Amino acid sequence: MSDSPLPPLKPIPIKDRLTLIFLQYGEIDVIDGAFVLVDKSGVRTCIPVGSVACIMLEPGTRVSHAAASLAAHVGTLLLWVGEAGVRLYASGQPGGARADRLLYQAKLALDETARLKVVRRMYALRFGEEPPSRRSIDQLRGIEGARVRKMYQWMAQRYKVQWEGRQYDPDQWDHSDTVNRCLSSATSCLYGLCEAAILAAGYAPAIGFIHTGKPLSFVYDIADLFKFDTVLPIAFQVAARQPPEPERQVRLGCRDIFRQQKTLERIIPIIEQVLAAGELPVPKPPDDAIPPAIPNQKSIGDVGHRC
Question: Rounded to whole angstroms, how far apart are CA atoms 115 and 112?
Answer without folding.
Answer: 5
